[in-house]
Design a protein that fits this description.
This protein has 356 residues and is mainly alpha-helical. The chain is 69% helix and 5% strand.
Length: 356
């Protein structure tokens, strides 16, 4: 009962941080107290926090190293943007965006299952390499598609836009290869992003504290022991992987509907993005959901706040990263205190009486 109360209190603190932060930032933004730079970062902040929380489900709770999270984000971003372009003007904006989130998350979750079935048989470095390859493949596959629409329906080509053979009067290119999708409706707002982040936190924290979550953590702690007591390892690993992928897809929807032009570049959906998300997780604490969320918030803000000293901002950013990482892994100097206590105990330890 005490442990349940402690868990509930910890979860409520996490939800409270999000709610209070949302109200405060929304009030400041509505009053015009935030700079244009900070206002423009509100939606990306929500996106990166969702990505950090979702990846922590795989890395921290399941205990598997995945470097393909940007690939699932890319799937959700492009599928939802394609849906929004097709349905613009045919339904209300709110309903269209809601359906786009559902579709982007669902398709990314399906990709998570399809990739997870063969990939999750691997472990450690092998799993990291294969998931990294998946992220790069998805990015490059998206860049070879040309999709257009006219009165005759959809036209698809993998050569160039001219090969679409559309009607000149009514033809419209939706996906233009490496140039991506232009004119995606900018439906993402900070309030929607905060609500989506809160939903993701509720799902993840309730999963972690459920029977399925305990089964997932038992696989992380000792795979052989978990299997010996009848836990279906494949089932629970696929569950965690698919849920994490679906959340990354939802973050991709938020990301794509905050841009006028969506292109699958290395900067947006490549290896660097996956590593950045992993840094959020490691810095905030592997398995610490609240910590990864806060780390994503802080590390997204630091480079932008230091933009005025452009010559040194990445140097300062790197120094802060190293310092916080050392502090985090030493648990606030716990190891130093333990070392000192051992030394002092050895010095002042009372001598045992000699046996008669």
């Amino acid at each position: 009962m005490k442990r349940m109360q402690k868990t509930t209190r910890s979860n409520l603190i996490t939800y409270g941080i999000v709610i209070v932060g949302t109200i405060l930032l929304q009030a400041l933004d509505s009053a015009g107290s935030l700079s244009s730079l900070f206002s423009g970062l509100l939606v990306p902040l929500c996106t990166y926090m969702i990505l950090a929380v979702s990846l922590n489900l795989v890395v921290g709770i399941l205990g598997e190293l995945s470097l393909g999270h940007a690939g699932f984000m890319c799937v959700g971003a492009f599928v939802s943007a394609f849906f929004s372009k097709l349905t613009m003007g045919t339904m209300p904006d709110g309903l269209r965006f809601f359906l786009a989130i559902l579709i982007g998350a669902a398709v990314a979750g399906i990709f998570g299952i399809l990739i997870g079935i063969p990939v999750l048989r691997l472990r450690g470095d092998y799993l990291a390499i294969v998931t990294l390859a998946f992220g790069e493949i998805i990015k490059n596959v998206v860049n070879v598609f040309y999709i257009g629409r006219d009165v005759n329906g959809l036209h698809v080509s993998m050569k160039d836009s001219i090969s679409l053979n559309m009607d000149a009067a009514t033809g419209e290119i939706i996906v233009n290869g490496p140039q991506g999708i232009n004119g995606t409706p900018r439906d993402s707002t900070f309030l929607i992003g905060a609500v989506l982040l809160l939903i993701v936190l509720i799902i993840v924290l309730n999963l972690v504290n459920s029977r399925s979550g305990r089964a997932i953590m038992s696989i992380r702690d000792d795979r052989i022991a978990a299997e010996s007591i009848g836990i279906n390892i494949t089932k629970y690993k696929l569950m965690a992987f698919a849920i994490s992928a679906a959340m990354a897809g939802a973050a991709g929807v938020l990301y794509s509907h905050n841009l006028a032009t969506l292109a699958a570049t290395s900067r947006n959906f490549g290896y660097n993005m996956s590593i950045t998300i992993l840094v959020f997780v490691v810095l905030g604490g592997i398995g610490n959901i609240r910590g990864s969320m806060i780390a994503a918030f802080v590390l997204t803000l630091i480079p932008e706040l230091l933009r005025s000293i452009s010559d040194y901002r990445m140097l300062i950013y790197a120094v802060i990263l190293i310092a916080v990482m050392i502090f985090n892994w030493s648990r606030g100097g716990r190891h130093i205190k333990e070392l000192l206590s051992v030394k002092l105990h050895g010095i002042f330890k009372p001598r045992r009486k000699e046996a008669k």
